[in-house]
């Protein structure tokens, strides 16, 4: 099955080849044909642009603008392959937003959405350009930390946590709490994306339990 990019490339190649075989526009019938082809080409390009737009929307979380779980898992699979191919170091960070249910119960779901947006907006501006953040579902997020050893990955997540604390969220005169628990797991060649996600989730759970117990992870 062709990918969208492959279809786009084939379409453009065919249009270029077809245009190069057109008769000269000086001949009246040829001029009409050339005009019709140009019109068809424009319509096809507009349709192609719409297809690409719909593909982007299918990979994007409508509330937060981050890539969704499907797109994130695809990117995670690609990164695991690169780890095996090039011997790179990378980690998956699993993030669980703290206290979303109490916010929803006390202030309504609009406030809960504001908390989600605040976390997504803040963290997406704090991560590196080489990192990838996505929404996994509900109040859970993932970040692919590329080119990171274990110490760097932990330091990155601690930096993100501190950075979020420095940006308070005010909602109708109330300062809403926004914090998260996290866990990181190192990517290894040959791993399945779902397995990596489960391991990072387990690390996040351990971290959350250690915070509740007042101990460091």
Question: What's this model, at a glance?
Answer:
It holds the Pfam family GGDEF. Keywords: Coiled coil. The protein has helices at about 5-20, 30-60, 70-85, 100-105, 110-125, 150-165, 195-215, and strands spanning about 90-95, 130-135, 140-145, 170, 175, 180-185.
Q: How would you characterize this protein structure?
A:
The protein has 217 residues and is α+β, with helices and mostly antiparallel strands. The chain folds into 2 domains: 4-58; 69-213, Alpha-Beta Plaits (2-Layer Sandwich). It has helices at residues 4-20, 28-58, 69-86, 100-107, 109-126, 150-165, 193-213, and strands at 90-97, 132-137, 140-146, 169-171, 174-176, 180-186. The strands form 2 sheets. It has a 4-stranded antiparallel β-sheet with strand order 2-3-1-6, with helices on both faces. A two-stranded antiparallel sheet has the order 4-5. A hairpin with a 2-residue loop joins strand 4 and strand 5 (174-176). It is flat and about 85 Å long.
């Amino acid at each position: 099955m062709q990918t969208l990019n492959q279809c786009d490339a084939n379409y453009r190649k065919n249009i270029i080849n077809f245009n190069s075989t057109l008769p000269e526009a000086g001949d009246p019938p040829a001029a009409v044909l050339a005009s019709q082809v140009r019109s068809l080409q424009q319509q096809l390009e507009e349709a192609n642009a719409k297809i690409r737009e719909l593909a982007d929307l299918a990979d994007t979380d409508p509330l937060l603008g981050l890539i969704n779980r499907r797109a994130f898992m695809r990117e995670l699979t690609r990164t695991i392959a690169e780890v095996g191919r090039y011997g790179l170091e990378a980690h998956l960070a699993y993030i669980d937003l703290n206290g979303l249910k109490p916010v929803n119960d006390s202030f309504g779901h609009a406030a809960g959405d504001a908390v989600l947006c605040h976390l997504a907006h803040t963290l997406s501006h704090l991560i590196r350009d080489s990192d990838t953040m996505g929404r996994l579902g509900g109040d859970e997020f993932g970040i692919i930390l590329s080119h990171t050893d274990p110490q760097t990955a932990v330091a990155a997540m601690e930096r993100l946590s501190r950075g979020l604390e420095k940006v308070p969220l005010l909602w109708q005169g109330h300062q809403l709490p926004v914090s998260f628990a996290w866990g990181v797991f190192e990517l290894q060649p040959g791993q399945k994306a779902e397995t990596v996600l489960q391991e990072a989730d387990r690390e996040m759970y351990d971290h959350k339990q250690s915070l509740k117990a007042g101990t460091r992870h």
